[in-house]
Design goal:
The protein is an alpha+beta fold. 58% of the residues lie in helices and 10% in strands. It contains 10 helices and 4 strands, in the order αααββααααββααα.
Length: 509
Amino acid sequence: MAYTLHRTIRRFRPVALLLSSVMLTACAVGPDYDAPPLVATGDGWSQADTVTSAPTDLARWWSTLGDPVLERLIDTALAANLDLRVAAARIDEARALRDRVAGEQLPTAGASTSVNRRRQSENGPLPIGSMPGLETTQTIYDAGFDAAWEADLFGAKQRALEGAGAQLQAVEADAQGVRMRIVAEVARAWFTAAGAGQELHTQQAMLETLEHTLELVRKRQALGDASASDVDTAYAQWAAVHATLPDIQARQRAAVLSLGVLLGAPPEHELALLNTAATPLTLLALPVGERADVLRRRPDVLAAERRLAASMADIGVATAELFPKLSIGIGGGFQALATGDWFNSSSTRFSILPLISWRLFDGGRVRAEIRAREATGQQAALAYEQAVLTALGDAERALSDYHAGLDALGRRQAALKATRRSHDHAKARYAAGDIALVELLAAERVLYEAETANVHAHTTAAVQLVALYKALGGGWEAPATKSDTATPAQGLGVSIPSHAANASAAPRP
């Protein structure tokens, strides 16, 4: 047995030498991807008073707001949201596809054992009956193995692995984009529900004041001091405020119902929040860092850049079809007509089949495929540029909206302070007997209106803050190092080789 194995190894020695020479001469055709295209993005933020110091914590920005309800909601959503679970499954799928491509670089091997009982015709093409020592009925015992391997001479499999790795990173970036979106949607829904609850409380207080005013005017009408028109006016004011309550309640309930779904639960799961008071939120100007930081953090930009890298690798896969392929098949084993001779040295069999194939003429299909992959690469490059500009546009709009929201909130707060001072004067004058009760109630109505406007402005600014964090790429941990399988987006000031943006069909060994 040992002697047989030694002879088999000696027979395969030329194959080992051939494989070594193949590995030394292999190369990868097609464009080498280095970096994304250079996109003209401007020098800095268009908002003149933008604070460019680095934000405190974009990865978990909601934890800096000091709202325990918000933290609980977001942590629950990150653990149970179904969109995030779907995104995780997509990552598993992309990783499995990458592993399958990696496995195609290795040889395939198999083993088999068979016992074949057969009878050959004496009247067939072989004169079995007239051949001495050859029986018409035979039992053939066979055990062996076979292996096959295609040499990656021109890098088709290497490029395919590069593309699959880049696609995996793109899917991972997409998943981070889903995480970022879920965090923002939860925060937006909670701030909307909390703001609607505060607005509802203020409107109900205003409604009580208007009810007192209406009762007072009716009493004055009974005494002859007020007309029916005065009663109708007081009632119209009460009815107008009363009509706003269903809309506020519907907005609050809709926001809470959406929270239940975002948390991966039935919509009614968080209905208890309808009676939960929100933690007061202090809104200040947000330091946003440099504008280039947005491109390093935005998952959509990272995903677009990774898909550009994958499309460049696909060009190499298509280009490799212009060149010959080398496949090597090896088989061996033992075959005998009797079990006693099955594994003897004289029963060994083996075969070596090197095969070179080359598509010399195919009607131009390979070059057409290369042109198609180049066009796909150009689309991916343009999609990356669009993603960059879209990200900057989102950040600029969100920053502008939040600044405007803070400005509006500041003015509403100033108006509310003035209204409160006016209301305090009205109370003092009423206590001194200088004004009637109806005038005091009118001052209280104006105060409640100012409070409602302030609550609405605060809610709007809070939602705009969420949009700003999302536009800045907050809500996930940006990668700090480069991946082993591909080059991540490098932000501003990097260029792409001309062959990557407009890849040529000419092969380059």
